[in-house]
Amino acid sequence: IFTLMASIKQLKKDINNDIGSIIEDIYLWELSNPNADLSMSEQLIEEAIQVFDELIQKINSVSAKDNLKKHFAAIQEERKKMIHSLLKKSADL
């Protein structure tokens, strides 16, 4: 169980770092493009925050009675897909 708790903590930390990095990149883009329409970038920041909230909620809602490895593997896979999607959208700004 201790190893699993460390894995959960690391997963949350990874999600926080990934989302934080994406948001930071968007802010840098906004600063370097002051004349651009910022509505798309602001919308992308909101989406990134929503992704963060959803993933953390999924982690926190996993019950000890569940198949933990299966659930966290699914969350990890979903994290990869969502982060990839956000990165692709931010590259399109």
Topology:
Blueprint: H1 2-32, H2 39-60, H3 68-91
Structure description:
It contains three helices and no strands. With 93 residues, it is mainly α. The protein is elongated and about 55 Å long.
How would you sum up the global shape?
elongated
Largest β sheet strand count, sense and barrel closure: none
Strand content: under 5%
Q: Please count the helical segments.
A: 3
What value does the Rg take, in angstroms? Answer: 15 Å
Structural class: mainly alpha
Instruction: Bin the helical content.
Output: over 70%
Flag low-confidence runs: none
Record field, number of beta strands: 0
- Secondary-structure element sequence? HHH
Distance between the termini: 43 Å
> What would the average pLDDT be, to the nearest integer?
91
List keywords for this structure.
93 residues; 3 helices; mainly alpha
In summary, what is this structure?
The protein is built from three helices and no strands. It has helices spanning 2-32, 39-60, 68-91.
